[in-house]
Amino acid sequence: MKNKVFLSRRSFLKFISLLAVTAAFKINSKENRNFLSMNDSKKNIEKDLVKWDSIELHRTGTEGDNETAHWLAEEIERCGLIPRLDSFNFTKRTPKKSIVTNGSHTAKGLPLFDGGSTSSDGINGDFGSLEDKNVIAVTKYGSSTMDEATKNLNNARKRNEHPAIVAIADVSPNKPGLAVLNAESYREPFGPPVLQVATKEADWLLNLKKDEKLTVFAELEDQSSEALNVQTQIEGRDPSLNPLVVMTPKSGWWTCTSERGGGITIWLNSLRHLSKYKPLRTVIFTANSGHELSHLGLDHFLENNSSLIRGAHAWVHLGANFAAKKGQVLWQASTQNYMELGLLELRKENLKGIQSWPVSSRPLGEARNIFDGNGDYISLLGSNPLFHHPDDKWPESIDMDKLIKLNNMMLKMISKMANTAK
User: Fold this and answer.
1) How many of the other CB atoms lie within 10 Å of CB of 10?
2) What is the structure's pLDDT at 254?
């Protein structure tokens, strides 16, 4: 007698629901052939990454950041679309003298951009730990705000009991070096000057003699400046439908090729594709500066387009790190249907190390801005052993096979979302 399989009512309804979503996201065979041809060729992706990597510094409002904006605008024009360079004002903080020395050893570093600044004379004095008051504190920090060492550093900054802090990058298992922290409080800097230094400087900074003194320079020059977001729009066949928004950050601390390059090339490939195959609904593309400075550029875009947060059909966030070698892929979504659909598409690409973020939890990256406004979103990002590291450069930092698969997967997702009326 053959075995019978029975589904509970709950399991059956879940199965039918996922089938319905998958069916609604079908794409026509002509488009499917085009995706496959893009997957067979690495030319667009390599060209984009080489161009991105040729710009050494992508920090917000710098010459490199502006060069990136004009390059993206040129790529938009090549698709027959109209680019918009959207400038926003901000207070630019430029690092000047940034070292710590005991007279015999000297370490170069980078100040925290949301901390205090020393004068050009620096600060000289006794050293100690975060628990000691009125001394130059020497401590460690991790690769994110969730690391215990970073939490201890930020708590000490809030107490503001030190004339300056020297913070050593302790970013294991990531690559040692000057992997710096984002300025999450850029609009309201707080606490004493903090100089971030590379991992190797622990050899002497953590072995100072009691009678030694330190001199710290963590000088930041503030000036009024502008930065550029880049936008374009592809009009849909049905203007009555709410638009889809595809966003990616375009700034970072250093070159940041595996951190930012994946999002940039998929953003460009999406608009290249949809400019050839006109979508059902309008698609808005925005590449924003200010990522490392608490999302200044996205905030500017949202202030000018506040109705889009909830009014958009959905937001596609092409986030950080998913192109990195030896990094995992993280999928985030605002609904269970988007979560299951994204994970299904990722599994189809035979990708390993896929992680997912709980639907009900505040997500990472720019998706958090959409979550805070109760908007719908899907979000692709990942981990990176070269996160915020100066050595994050082409081609060594890129997992090209993984990126091609993710490019293929996200083009399908974006096209499906742009061509469904539901």
Assistant:
1) 8
2) 98
